[in-house]
Amino acid sequence: MTPSDALIEVQNLTMAYGDFILQQNLTFSIKKGSIFAIMGESGCGKSTLLRHLTGLKRPATGDISFSGKNFWKSSKKERIQRMQKCGVLYQSGALWSSMSIGENIALPLQQFTDLPTKLIAEIVDLKLALVGLKGFAKYPPSAISGGMRKRAGLARAIALDPEIVFFDEPSAGLDPISSKMLDDLILELRDSLGATIVIVTHELPSIFALADDSIFLDTETRTMLATGDPNILARESKSLKVKQFLSRSVSLTNQP
């Protein structure tokens, strides 16, 4: 990958909470337009890495750059501008229960643009249509299913036409059919918006269906064991632990 291909570059990243090191020596790149999966066992730091990539947590050491510009060495104004180019879908959808679906989606447009109310309403309707929720703008979040709330959260995440969309366990709590529908929707949005997708997930069907690149974080060694296309890693990775994870096989061997 050439520097011009990389939208996000991570160099020698250490993630820590106080003196406790969660992961260290993380170096990888995320290509423009790719779907990048963050994989690993529970507690390895997948969601924490997502918080670092979205600018919500500062690295203990190391650098994170977007389009060649170091995020934490930029001014506060530049960091805010970069974060506005990112959308995030949280596990629960994270919709405001006191607002309607439409009001939730309109919120980032009201906060970060000077668009007139009528145009914002039109954009809200468009985003809802894109995620298959046309006509649900006036519904409260409590009136729709969990899968629909995920899609409504996604509509809000793409309200500002972000360059990067981050997903934190998007299939959590969904049945297999709803999970497959969400996977298909993510692919459609990547293709229609041209956005780069970064996804935290442990769901193998989603990993193999969506990701063309990935990183595997290991709890025991507290660092990355592999990076690359998960479909290739499942066959060719030199790490037994990575192969076991991607095949869901179990072995008594403790080889990393």
Explain how this protein is built.
It is a single chain. This protein has 9 helices and 10 strands. The chain has 256 residues and is an alpha/beta fold. Mean pLDDT is 88; it is low at 250-256. It has helices at residues 46-53, 76-83, 101-112, 117-130, 146-157, 176-193, 204-210, 230-236, 240-247; strands at residues 6-17, 20-31, 35-40, 61-66, 69-70, 86-89, 164-168, 196-200, 213-218, 223-227.
Q: What order do the helices and strands come in, and which of them pair?
A:
Elements: E1 6-17, E2 20-31, E3 35-40, H1 46-53, E4 61-66, E5 69-70, H2 76-83, E6 86-89, H3 101-112, H4 117-130, H5 146-157, E7 164-168, H6 176-193, E8 196-200, H7 204-210, E9 213-218, E10 223-227, H8 230-236, H9 240-247
Parallel strand pairs: 3-8, 3-9, 6-7, 7-8
Antiparallel strand pairs: 1-2, 1-4, 4-5, 9-10
Helix pairs in contact: 3-4, 3-5, 4-5, 6-7, 8-9
